[in-house]
Write a structure and sequence with these properties.
The chain has 192 residues and is of the alpha/beta class. Helices cover 61% and strands 12% of the residues. The chain is built from 9 helices and 5 strands, in the order E-H-E-H-H-H-E-H-E-H-H-H-E-H. The two termini are 13 Å apart. Bound molecules: BIS(adenosine)-5'-pentaphosphate. The site of BIS(adenosine)-5'-pentaphosphate has 30 residues, from helix 1, helix 2, helix 3, helix 6 and helix 9. BIS(adenosine)-5'-pentaphosphate binds next to helix 1, helix 2, helix 3, helix 6 and helix 9.
């Protein structure tokens, strides 16, 4: 399984990505988590990424490419993966497709978690208060959602055109959303 999690901040990419990865026995690779680990460790990458992340902006493509390629090289990507948070722009998607086509590792499925904005705000505001993630502050959450709408949402059409796009209703309990995702993946597997 080579799957991509697409969805606005707080839609559940991390939560559901981990469950999909466990079901298929593949690594869950979250660019947000990788970057936050760099920030916590104070690496050069972390220092370069920190300000953009705290503002809720995307980090530069070159930086994200280095992070993702480094992580993919740690496991055998041909055995599968769940990518969470990359690609996030059309340029990133086109670059990823170029590399994937050459290596025969294009995505099997792009799961897009659809959810109303007020529920995103509620989830992230709650996490901000309980876990204190630096970008879970009301103004920054709103900006992250705007950045998603402007830069990442257009990827829907890109992946719809490639016939691997699976829209998922991500409103509901974590278990309900997982059931919908597994059912969609089962239909995809059965039809191939
Ligand atoms: P990233 O970590 O990817 O942040 P994000 O997209 O804003 O997503 P979140 O992690 O906030 O939410 P999620 O959709 O994973 O939901 P989660 O499962 O956590 O990226 C952070 C930053 O890194 C970016 O802003 C950017 O600066 C940089 N970056 C990353 N990738 C990049 C790239 N490719 N290019 C450039 N820059 C990049 O759930 C959210 C909360 O809701 C949790 O508390 C969870 O417990 C709860 N929850 C989940 N599901 C449910 C449910 N069904 N019901 C109730 N609560 C739920």
């Amino acid at each position: 399984m080579r799957a991509l999690m697409l969805g606005a901040p707080g839609s559940g990419k991390g939560t559901q990505g981990a469950r999909i990865a466990e079901r298929y026995g593949v690594p869950h690779i979250s660019t947000g988590e990788l970057l936050r680990a760099h920030v916590d460790l104070g690496t050069e990458t972390g220092r370069a990424a920190r300000a953009s992340m705290e503002r809720g902006d995307l980090v530069p493509d070159l930086l994200i490419a280095a992070v993702i390629l480094g992580r993919l090289a740690e496991s055998d990507p041909s055995r599968g993966f769940v990518l969470d948070g990359f690609p996030r722009t059309l340029q990133q998607a086109q670059a990823a497709y170029g590399v994937a086509k050459e290596t025969g590792m294009t995505f099997d499925a792009v799961l897009c978690l659809d959810i109303p904005h007020d529920e995103l705000m509620r989830r992230l505001d709650e996490r901000g208060r309980s876990k204190g993630r630096a970008d879970d502050e009301e103004g920054t959450i709103r900006h992250r959602i705007e950045v998603y709408e402007e830069k990442t949402a257009p990827l829907r059409e890109y992946y719809e055109a490639r016939g691997i796009f699976l829209p998922i209703d991500a409103n509901g309990t974590v278990d309900e959303v997982t059931e919908r995702i597994f059912a969609a993946l089962d239909r995809l597997t059965d039809s191939s």
